[in-house]
Each structure stands twice: as structure tokens, then as C-alpha cells.
Amino acid sequence: MFGNGNITTKELLKSVRQIEIKTSRIVNSYFSGRYHSAFKGHGIEFDEVRKYTIGDDVRAMDWKVSARYNEPFIKRFREERELNVIILADFSASTDFGFTKTKHNLIIEVAALLLFSALKNNDKVGLLIFTDRVEKFIPLNKGRNHVLRIIRELIEFEPKNIKTNIADTLEYFNRIQSRGSVTFLITDICSEFPKKEIDITKKRHDFIVCLVNDMLEYQLPNLGGTLIMSDLENDDFVYFDMRNKRVKDKYLTEQNKIMEDKLNFLKKNSIEKILLDTSSDYVNEIMKFFINRIR
């Protein structure tokens, strides 16, 4: 559906419209209320002063106003529901891989779903696109036009670099975003997670990792002959003799160990995660995450 090579304005607008229709329908049908309940605002804020009535908590008494009018008044507060939601989107070359769809396209769809969920809650949203450096940053703002601007950027943006650097990305993000936000890191990170930068991010923000994978990375097809696999970020190639069971088993063992290490790191460091696959129902996975959060 998406691509960032030589896209025309007409094609771009059509893609934006398609994703708005699809995503808005999902948000209205399945996510209504759950997104709102899954995340907390920045705290409570002052609402009004009103006259005391029997049963009110005397600890909320506003003594200055009560003294001025010679009758009891209390302060009322309400929960601040507006959130700051920021998407950190991995656009490194490895995300161009995929069987039924590329990981890059899945990242765009997931980001759009989260953005429209935030729009329904009248939240501010922002975007940071990264590779091994920060390629694009769109500051927080609210409203439909702002969300559509971000989605247009996601669809048409062409990164200059191909590698991944989560550490520098989070260091930059924490430097420019001091106020707490709900932060979704959507990545297929193939290297180790940077513990120091993640610890800092967790302290300042509500941090969720969306880990994007593809089934072919952990399940080789039953084909004969030689399979050529390329590392898109390092311009390297590996040749597999698909008739050699030992070679296939070794590859799958190594790949599954990489995934196991990622999941163990997230669990050990109490990092919330959403596991996504290009061939699975990402809507259902995000829904389950919201429901578990509410519980």
C-alpha cells in the first residue's frame, strides 16, 4: 500500500485518505474508550470552588474563600486527561523486509492507528523518524490536520541513512522532550537495546516498545537450492543451502536466540511491549495491550 519512492501528490493523498478511513473505522469500532482508559493524564488540575455540602471532604476546604464569604467553600479538582503522545518510528533499511507486507508498512499502519486513537481523545501528538540518526522530528500538536500531516510524512519520507541507533535516538528525544509523554518506540531493532538510555526514558515517560517482526526471520520456507539472504543495513550477503538441514537449524536457532534475548531484556527491565508480525492481526495485538493495561 505504501512506498516512499517517487510517490506523486495524487497517490500520496489517496494513500492518506485510505489509511484515515481504515484506521478511523477501527478506532470507532474497537478502541473507543479502551485507549482513554489505558493511559493516565498528567495528574489532577484545579476545576472550581463551590459551596460546601454535607458529605464533602473537609480536607478540600478553601479556608481563604470561606473566610471571605463567611461560609464554607471547597476546592474541586478533575483528572487531567489530555496526553502527549509521541511515535518514535524506525525507518532503517531492515524495515524494508517482509513476506506479506514490509515491516516499514506495518510501522506506518500501527503509527496511524495510535495517532487516530489519540486524536479521538483530543491528545497532542508528535513524530520522530530515525535510522542511526534522527531524520525528522514533528513537535507535539493536536487536531485532525496535524495528524494527517504526520501520516503524510510517514508515507512519503525517504530516510538518508540505512542503519539503526536506538541509543542516540533516545538521547536526543529525552533532551528535547522534557515533559512526560506516552512514547511508542516502533522498531525491528536487530541489535541490543541500550539500557542506559531506556532507563532514562522510562523515568520520564510512559514508555512502550512495539517490536515488529516478520515470520521469515524465524521460519525459513521449504525450498530447494540456494537461498540468498542480505543484510540491508550492512550490505552483506549470506548463502544458505536449503537442502542442508543442519545449516537451516543453526540459522533458526540463532534467530530465535536473538528474539529470546530481546524479550528477556524487556521483561527483566519491566518494559511494556506489543509484539507485532507482518502476517498477524496487529489490531488485535494492540487491543489486547489496551485491555491488559486497563486491568
UniProtKB/TrEMBL annotation:
Residues 48-255 form the DUF58 domain. InterPro entries: DUF58, vWFA_dom_sf. This is DUF58 domain-containing protein. It comes from Brachyspira catarrhinii.
